[in-house]
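Q: Here's a chain of 276 amino acids. Please give me its 3D structure as tokens.
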Amino acid sequence: MQTVISALLGLGMLLGSAGGLVQEGQQAQENRRMQQDDDGQRQVQSQPAPVQIEATSILRVRGEATAAAAPDRATVTIGAVAQGRNAAEAQRSVNRQVENIVRAVRVLDVEDMVLQTQSVSLSPRYDSDRGRREPGAPPVIIGYQASNTVQVRIDEVGMIGRVIDAAMEGGANTISGISFHLRDDSEQRAEALAKAAERAREKARVLSRATGAQITGIVEIAEEGTQAIPFHPRGFGPEMLAARATDPGAQIEAGQIEVRAAVTITYHIKVENGEF
């Protein structure tokens, strides 16, 4: 009897221990489930909200324009070429010619005339026929050639023809580099820039209307520079010397001075649905 009671007591204790283990297992599972739920909530909260991206792009256009005006300054290069048996003789000869040229030009008494030496040169002259007469013979100097040129600048543009005629009467046998300019082209540069910018803007308006894009702002305005183009009459050189020798006083047309400008404008544009 006592043995049976002892056995029953042992079985009860065993069942009690087993029940405790089952409860502990259930509690651990519940704790893990709660931890997983908390981790999931934190993960959802840490994800950023969706970003609404608006389709934007740029439109770059370029405008060019010119502004013109009558020139108020003229320049011409006049001078002489002379030869001599030796260097000193050639140099003296060309110096006399240039002195006569300058004196004849100054007699005109043109206001604000500026004369400046442009170039001076002296070089030997060789017997070009000796090589044919004596093959292999070294070149032989037979004389020297000297040249001297002077640039004349005047602001009375209409007098440039008289300056050239006076120089020729004084002994000039070279004429080159005649050109017309503007003393101050700032007004024409501003006008050309304004026109170029307006043409760029007009291009942007046409393109935005044609594509359905909306211009929302300016990213950049870039000036590509302005340039004044001097006017150079044609036919100056030996042909002009011959022509003016037979018809002195012929009018030289000054033409027009063009000032060119270019502007590039970059715009922000808004595009519906991200495409044109």
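Q: Can you summarize the key feature?
A: The first helix runs from residue 2 to 46.
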